[in-house]
Amino acid sequence: MTRPSTRGHTDPTVQPVPPSVVERVDAADATLHDPKTAVVSLGSNLGNRLETLQGAVDALEDTPGIRVRAVSPVYETEPWGVEPGSQPSYFNAVVVLRTTLPPSSLLERAHAVEEAFHRVRDERWGPRTLDVDIVSYAGLLSDDPRLTLPHPRAHERAFVLVPWHDVDPEAELPGRGPVAALLDTVAREGVTPRGDLELRLPE
Q1: Active site residue: 98, 131, 166, 168, which one?
Q2: What are the average pLDDT values for consecutive 10-residue runs of the chain, which has 203 residues?
Q3: Known active-site residue 131
């Protein structure tokens, strides 16, 4: 549940988790029967971006069968797949969950959280109030078109890999290898740590 970092607690973008919060989350996690680990990425480039990301974290924790184990630092990133300057920048973060929900139910919950924040799907790569993507689920490999696992473009996206590595330096993307190694293959330009912002772990 801690936010491990090879850079230590002097890094302003990675704050230690208070022991009292660790104890509460670990106690709640113990109520789950045979939970699986899932990694979810969050993004927002419309409205109050930080408030929206925090609302998404809280909504996931409020879901029966989900416990939020770790929340990454916040990064400000350039929009993916569009002309530079054509959209506002994103705030992005990664959340590590323990869950008893199957992947299909977790996807339904992700979509419900997006809809609660008025996500509109009018255009691919369009701006959005909230994007909730399942990056990986318990090491599962699946080519189901409704939910491909792991996320088919996660290995290309620094805005996913960088915050994920912050919370779990030993993480692996199923079928692709260690996140640390994948980071060496992607450009990090336009992915800026926001040390002045922080998402709270649910209490």
Answers
A1: 131
A2: 36 46 57 88 94 95 94 92 75 96 94 82 65 96 94 96 97 97 93 96 84
A3: yes
